[in-house]
Amino acid sequence: MSTSELQNDRLLRALQRQPVDRTPVWMMRQAGRYLPEYREVRNQAGSFMGLCRTPELAARVTLQPLERYDLDAAILFSDILTIPEAMGLGLEFVAGEGPVFENRIKTATDIDRLPRPSPDQELRYVMDAVQACRQELKGRAPLIGFTGSPWTLATYMIEGGSSKTYAASKSLLYNEPEAAHRLMAKLADTVADYLSGQVEAGAQALMLFDTWGGVLDPQRYREFSLAYMQRIVEQLPRERDGRRVPVTLFTKGGGQWLEDIAATGCDGIGLDWTTPLDEARRRVGDQVALQGNLDPCMLYAEPEVIRREVRRCLAEFGHGPGHVFNLGHGVQPETPPESVETMIQALHESSPAYHDATAPTASS
Amino acid sequence: MSTSELQNDRLLRALQRQPVDRTPVWMMRQAGRYLPEYREVRNQAGSFMGLCRTPELAARVTLQPLERYDLDAAILFSDILTIPEAMGLGLEFVAGEGPVFENRIKTATDIDRLPRPSPDQELRYVMDAVQACRQELKGRAPLIGFTGSPWTLATYMIEGGSSKTYAASKSLLYNEPEAAHRLMAKLADTVADYLSGQVEAGAQALMLFDTWGGVLDPQRYREFSLAYMQRIVEQLPRERDGRRVPVTLFTKGGGQWLEDIAATGCDGIGLDWTTPLDEARRRVGDQVALQGNLDPCMLYAEPEVIRREVRRCLAEFGHGPGHVFNLGHGVQPETPPESVETMIQALHESSPAYHDATAPTASS
Predict the structure, then answer these.
(1) B67-77 confidence digits (pLDDT tens)
(2) Is the pLDDT of residue B217 over 90?
(3) Is the pTM of this model over 0.90?
(4) Residues 6 or more apart in contact with residue A68 via CB below 8 angstroms
(5) Among this protein's residues, is B244 annotated catalytic?
(6) Helix or strand run (H / E) with residue B210
(7) I want to staple B104 with a disulfide (CB 3.0 to 4.6 A). Which of A135, A260, B160, B287 is the partner?
(8) Model confidence over B224-282: pLDDT tens digits?
């Protein structure tokens, strides 16, 4: 595909722990409901999945946060659950409840019957959206592709939605480990195809969201979540057009397992706000870049508090490369957009002091 | 008060890391909805708080799990939210939603107006229930008294119930730290009075449930949750009738902060299932006993899986004293009672091998 040259490569450099002139920043769920301009397009589209399925609209909302804020990456507007949806589980978004699947996985037979959707067919619309995003971005910033981790996808497919206890999904792991492994393997290979397709279509960095890995005990986390994220990492194209395509793994609540996560061969680890950046850097900073980790609730605080916390976060990571500033989880829908502006401004004011001003960063 | 001599002191010995003949066991929420005999008394009582407020019924359900299973402790049947209820916040238990407070804390003025309920007056009914439990127990096993940690109580008082994000409670910490400190101090001192009253009334061990400490960043956890648990620990009577009254702190999701928790001077730390017992023992086992940590969802597994996991848990802690077997969170309401039996039998079969059979444990 023809795309303009990348004018801002801070994210890609930071994820390879290469020098940058300032700490790159993007936000999980940066394109979304907290932005009035998003809500307008969302209403036009009629439904959330309708918006995901219409490449020009998906591209429009993907770029909205970059129009408003000085961000260093765009993340494809899509959902972590596109794969189970394409497997025919009947995804709906119920107001106040979040995602709900009409058809749940109940037996080993259900697992073996699951089709393996392809990026060329059932998931073609996502590839089209990636292409449309790249076209609109014109090289302003790299585009991040993503999906949910196999375990996280499996929890929604088994529970039918989110859960307080994950009792049904855990029961599968505990009582039918072989069937569980078949499900995770099928999901991992589908995810690998899907993310490879996104790279083919133009994604320049990738992220796996393991939102529910932290509800597992360490043994099952390694066996059923992390092992399959590693299987995906091993299958992904890691270079495209002469550039590294970095992969970041984010397990919410996974702060105790950073060494294991780093050992998968990923480029970056996403951190929630329960693990200090200095501690994480001491433990795995020689192997991976670190992304995070401001509490999204901090964006409800007063401007001076937000500014102070951004500075604390920078000081906690310390000098030198390998840090991608982000929240510790997705932006919340009620976040005041001006608080995001305060956060980004504070970062741009304070972060250059932690870097070498002469770093050869391509930036607009 | 006149009570029989304690015939089973395994729990009290284990919490002081003294030798025992086998690993003591009890379960968080062991008296509760998963037991048909509980549901019967609950229906008689009319309401959950009605049951808590009627000492003879509270004592009856407190003892029910000990009639059914070979347990090493009773835990008072009550709620973690008795203190905010006694502060006049209007507690109701809404089916499917859990606890809901009619009157939420919204401003610093609301905090300063909060009364400080006393164990001799507003909370007298809890002391009466403790006395009734001791009378019924007749020294069979020690009675554990408990309540919620100041931060955990505060989240319910501010959010009005449970929450996905704790945005309102965190906003208080972020934006009005002084008012937040006043609230935590008032709650801590009320908790200290309340737990001291429970010891006076007959509680032989104490536990603080910091159910929502794990949603905080490390700095706020230490400043707003742990510091106030320490303030409580420092105010509690630690001996009664010539015996140590051990205090256990449980922060769900607090596995990253065990060193800080151990430094409060508590006797035991409760662990959820995300932290391996061997790792926890290596980190803090020379300072505190460890309680835990089977995933409550494991009780939905097949009997042989439950037995294997109990053995794994024992092997993980290893030989010698200082382990109290428990779940990593409360028993879930849909737990099959026979699975609890399987777990306890497996523990009693396998745990003696990890201890000195000649340990001078008083046991019935």
Answers:
(1) 999 999 999 99
(2) yes
(3) yes
(4) A35, A37, A337, A341
(5) no
(6) strand B205-210
(7) B160
(8) 999 999 999 999 999 999 999 999 999 999 999 999 999 999 999 999 999 999 999 99
Q: Cα A347–A324–A292 angle (5° rounding)?
A: 85
Neighbours of A176 (CB within 10 A): 16
- The first and second tokens of residue B285, run together, are 């086992």
Cβ burial of B282 (10 Å; 0-12, 13-18, 19+) is exposed
- Say if CB A270 and CB A326 are below 8 A apart: yes
Distance in angstroms (rounded) separating the CA atoms of residues B116 and B84: 10
Phi, psi of B268 (to 5 degrees): -135, 155
Q: Residue A166 has which token pair?
A: 């994950």
Amino acid at A233: V
Tell me if B176 sits within 8 A of A306, measured CB to CB. no
pLDDT at A364: 46
Which tokens is B283 given?
């980190």
Token pair of A328, please? 């510790």
pLDDT surpassing 70 at residue A2: no
The residue ranges of DSSP E strands in A286-335, in sequence order, are: 289-294, 323-327
> For residue B363, is pLDDT > 60?
no
Which residue in the block uniquely carries the two structure tokens 């970041």? A248
Domains of chain A, each with CATH number or no CATH: 27-293 (3.20.20.210)
Residue A113 designated active-site: no
Work out whether the CA dihedral B56, B62, B65, B66 comes out positive or negative. negative
The answer for residues whose C-beta is within 8 angstroms of residue A217's C-beta and 6 or more apart is B273, B274, B295
Going from the C-alpha of B295 to that of each of A172, B23, B287, the distances in angstroms are 14, 18, 24
Give the one of B218, B302, B332 whose C-beta lies nearest to A175's C-beta. Answer: B302
Map residue A92 onto helix, strand or coil. strand
User: How many residues are listed for chain A in this entry?
Assistant: 364
Give residue B80's identity as a one-letter amino acid code. Answer: I
The pLDDT of residue A362 is 66
Catalytic residue status for A156: yes
DSSP A285: T
Q: A96-113 pLDDT, tens per residue?
A: 788 999 999 999 999 999
User: Is the distance from CB of A207 to CB of A267 less than 8 angstroms?
Assistant: no
Helical H runs in A71-217? 82-86, 108-113, 124-137, 150-159, 167-175, 177-201
What percentage of residues in chain A have a pLDDT greater than 70?
A: 98
Interchain contact, A305 vs B166, CB within 8 Å: no
* Interface list for chain B against chain A, based on CB atoms closer than 8 Å: 165-167, 170-171, 174-175, 214, 216-218, 253, 255-256, 273-276, 295-298, 300-302, 305, 332, 334
In whole angstroms, what separates CA B28 from the centre of its chain? Answer: 6
Residue B311 contacts residue B346 (beta carbons within 8 Å): yes
Beta carbons within 10 angstroms of residue A11's beta carbon: 28
Contact yes or no for A137/A71 (Cβ under 8 A):
no
Asked if B214 lies within 8 A of A276 by C-beta distance, the reply is no
At B318, is the secondary structure helix, strand, or coil? coil
Cis-peptide, bond into residue A8, ω within 30° of zero? no
Mean pLDDT over each residue of chain A, to the nearest integer: 96
N residues, chain B:
364
Going A348 to A354 to A356 to A360, the CA torsion angle's sign is negative
